[in-house]
Design goal:
The chain is an alpha/beta fold. It has one domain (29-326): Protein of unknown function UPF0759 (TIM Barrel), CATH 3.20.20. It has ten helices and eight strands. It has an eight-stranded parallel β-barrel. α8 links the parallel β5 and β6.
Length: 327
């Protein structure tokens, strides 16, 4: 028997319809950082002496979205998600990194139980602040259409689906599962690839069939694809010269800002002129379905040399300026 709902010891807010975030594409832009707990940021991005417990609160007043990394490595507790929800302002969005156990160890096979555990750990406690789920594939994981399609069919597409799946969690979460949907809203998923075999029209068509986003990942090692496959675009900027470490200069930030605004207005980014596989291009000759607007999520993951929070702020300013000019 699957463990039933477990009541948390602290009162939970139940959000009414006025609080619900419908996640219909409105052309909103969410720009932030991948994680927020970094030693090198203390005393620079974070003011000297700021208590660690206040770092998320500080960062969430600068950015409107942050990517949670911890969910990639282990199952957390509902209290963590509740604390993060309460520390951030209304309208804030968390992206969540999917379980490494599912993507790297199971390699998407037999993932039903692991998915139930992932979604029962407390992600629903984020309420309307729960954003896209990022599934990052291992560098050696190659394109397998059948395996991907089977996995995509398992993914919950609404918070109601998440709650139902969470009820099927295993004994590992006995007494600590969170299986209540505080809001009714769609749940988005996206895929970050790291193997050249994914650079093919068949992969793009499969993502579009299942309404799964393709992560636009700027790195020095893995393919950079601009194909739009869903009603949102998810972008991770890891550093294009030195992985996780190099910063983005003015010219690069100007270019990324233009792409963000194009995506938000339902357009597509243009291919880069260089022929290297690490330069942005489209894997499929078929353009995305035309839309008036798309939501865009951008996270800087070049944290090693304290570039990420400053690059994210610089991109914010550029995007806001371009949005204003486009009105």
């Amino acid at each position: 028997m699957a463990q039933q709902d477990v009541c948390r010891p602290t009162p939970r807010r139940v959000y009414d319809i006025a609080d619900m975030s419908p996640h219909l594409a409105t052309g909103s832009t969410h720009i932030g950082i991948s994680g927020w707990r970094y030693q090198g940021w203390r005393g620079s991005f974070y003011p000297p002496g700021l208590p660690r417990r206040l770092e998320l609160q500080h960062a969430s007043r600068i950015f409107n979205s942050i990517e949670i990394n911890g969910t990639h490595y282990s199952l957390l507790r509902p209290s963590s998600f509740e604390q993060w929800r309460d520390a951030t302002p209304d309208g804030f969005t968390f992206a969540l990194k999917g379980s490494r156990f599912i993507t790297h160890m199971l390699k998407l096979r037999g993932a039903e139980g692991a998915l139930a555990n992932f979604f029962a750990q407390g992600v629903l406690a984020l309420g309307p602040k729960m954003g896209p789920i990022l599934w990052q594939f291992a560098p050696r994981f190659a394109f397998d259409a059948e395996r991907l399609s089977t996995f995509f069919d398992l993914l919950p597409r609404t918070t109601t689906d998440v709650a139902a799946l969470a009820h099927e969690h295993g004994p590992r979460l006995k007494g600590r599962a969170f299986t209540e949907a505080l809001v009714k809203q769609p749940v988005r998923h996206c895929i970050e690839i790291r193997h050249d075999s994914f650079v093919c029209p068949e992969f793009i068509a499969l993502l579009r069939k299942h309404n799964i986003g393709l992560v636009v990942a700027d790195t020095v090692e893995w393919p950079l694809l601009f194909d739009v496959t869903s009603d949102f675009v998810y972008c991770r900027l890891h550093g294009s010269e030195e992985l996780y470490a190099s910063g983005y200069g003015d010219a690069a930030l100007d270019t990324w800002a233009k792409r963000v605004v194009r995506w938000a207005h339902g357009e597509e980014a243009e291919d880069e002129t260089a022929s290297s596989r690490l330069h942005g291009h489209h894997a499929s000759p078929t353009p995305a379905r035309k839309r008036q607007k798309r939501d865009v999520f951008v996270y800087f993951d070049n944290d090693a040399k304290v570039h990420a929070p400053y690059d994210a702020q610089a991109l914010q300013r550029r995007v806001e300026k371009l949005h204003t000019a486009k009105k």
